[in-house]
Hints:
Elements: H1 9-23, H2 30-37, H3 41-44, H4 51-62, H5 76-93, H6 98-101, H7 109-124, H8 129-148, H9 179-212
Helix pairs in contact: 1-2, 1-4, 5-8, 5-9, 7-8, 8-9
Amino acid sequence: MPRNPILSASRIRAAALHIIDRDGLDGLSMRKLAAELGVQAASLYGHVSTKDDLLHEVASEILEKVDVSGFSGGDWRHGLTMCARSYREALARHPNIVPFLAYGPAHREASLRRLDVVHGALVAAGWTRREATMIAASLMYLVFGAALSSFSSGFSEDQSLYQDRYPNLDKAHLLPAVAAELDRDSFELALNAFVTGLAVLNGRDCVAAGEAAGESAPSGSPRRTDTTAAST
């Protein structure tokens, strides 16, 4: 029996993610990864070409849990909600790698396939290609903002810091104890406002489209134009 288990791509990814979770994104190096696995650094290059390639493989594995199946029923609002919740949950398990993921899908095939589903569903629902791109980007801003910070945890538990000086923050010292619950509920509030606001815009555009066809519509109803030069 070999002293160490035989290297495999899945074992390398797991070890790399363990280091990132423990030491942060900057704490990962091929030398440290090799030591974690009990091998020489040169042994890793038969499985992964560069650290950047390895990070993309780890990212792809983490993001497999992002669920875009909600778009299959034709309800873009349900699809966005499911996607956002599952995305936040996936990132919450490994917050140290979030800065790397925040740069976008890059050349990750699975990420691009998911984005293609989102984009296609939004366009099919009547949004222009440019708007679909903006909606997907806005959703990522919301998800990654929630994953990168905890507003409630940023307060001190020392009541004297807030009492008397900030009368409207006299209970702020209680927030860290319920940070997880507040962060979740705050994300849900923002997500609901985002999707509800989009639904209002989408409905007004439907009215505007009817007006263009000769039907009555309230004055000032916005019209959408598909700026293909700016679409993706």
